[in-house]
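ok trying this again, last paste got cut off
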Amino acid sequence: MNLDYLDFEQPIADLEGKIEALCNIKDKVDIVQEMEALKVKSGALTKKIFSSLSDWQISQLARHPKRLYTLDYIDSVFDEFTELHGDRSFADDHAIIGGIAKLNDQPLMFIGQQKGRSTQDKLKYNFGMPRPEGYRKALRLMKMAEKFSMPIVTFIDTPGAYPGIGAEERGQSEAIARNLFEMSTLATPIISVVIGEGGSGGALAIGVADTMMMFEYSIYSVISPEGCASILYNDAAKANIAAESLKLTSAHLKKENLIDEIIPEPLGGTHRDPDEAKKLLRDALMEQLHSIVKIPVDQLVQARADKLLGFGKFKE
C-alpha cells in the first residue's frame, strides 16, 4: 500500500516496509511473532511521532497527496446529494462543488472546494483554486438556502483563490468581498469545516460561519508558509520557520477562539483510515446541526455578528 510517506514519517515507512515484506512470505508460521512485534513497534512509533508534530509538519499533512478531498466525503457523510451547477452569469467552476444534501433527515445546502489527484483532475478542478464564477455560484446556492430555510455546510480546502489575469478581470476580489458581506448577515445557520488547507481569502469566501470546525491536521491561515517566508525572509525555503509564526494549526486557532471545534483524525491522518475519518466528520456535523437548527435565526445572525466583531481584539 503506497501512502506517499512524508519526510518525518520515514522511520514509520521503514518499519511498515519490513512488515509488508514479511507478509509476502508464503510460509508465515515461523514469523508470526516477529510480524506482531513489528506492528506493535510501528504503532508505538507512529503515536510518538504524531504526538509532537511541528506546525510545518502539520502543514505538510494538510496538503498530503492522499488526504481525503471534498468528493471523497460526500457519499459517505451525506445520505443524499444532488449537485447544482453554474453561477447564472459566466460559467460553472468545478473547483466549487455545491448542491442540496440530506444528513439524518435534515435537508441542507452543501458547498465545498475540490482539489484533484491525477493531472487531468488537477486541471479540471484548477488545483482547488476557485475563480470568481465559483464564488458567485456559492453565493447563489447560499441565497437559495436562505430562501428555503436550509442550513449551509461548507468544506474548505484550497491554497487560495485563483490569481490569474482572467479571474482578476472578472472581479475575483469583488466576488470574495461580496461573499464575506452576504454571509455575515445570511438568515440561515452556517457550519464550516476546514478539511485540509484553508488558504487566505479563497477560504474565507465560504468560511464566514456560526460554527467553524477544523480537522486536527488541517491548517487555516491568511497566507501560505512559503508565501510568508518569501515576504519576511526573501526565501521560500524558510517556510518551516514561517509556519511556526503564523499559528495556522487547529490547536493554535482553537486556543485563540478563532475556531469552535477540532475534529480528531485517525492516527497518521485522514488518508490512513478513510472510513474512520468520514465517520468522525459525519458525527461532528450531526451534532452541530442538531443544536444549531434549534436557535432562532435572528439570535444566530446577531451572535455571528458579535463573533466577527470580536476577532482581532487585543490588550495593550
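PB: full thing came through this time. The radius of gyration is 21 Å.
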